[in-house]
Amino acid sequence: QVQLVESGGGSVQAGGSLRLSCAASGYTFSTAYMAWARQAPGKDREGVAGISDDGITTYADSVKGRFTISRDNAKNTLYLQMNSLKPDDTAMYYCSYYYKYYGQGTQVTVSS
Question: Is 91 helix (H, G, I), strand (E, B) or coil?
Answer without folding.
Answer: strand
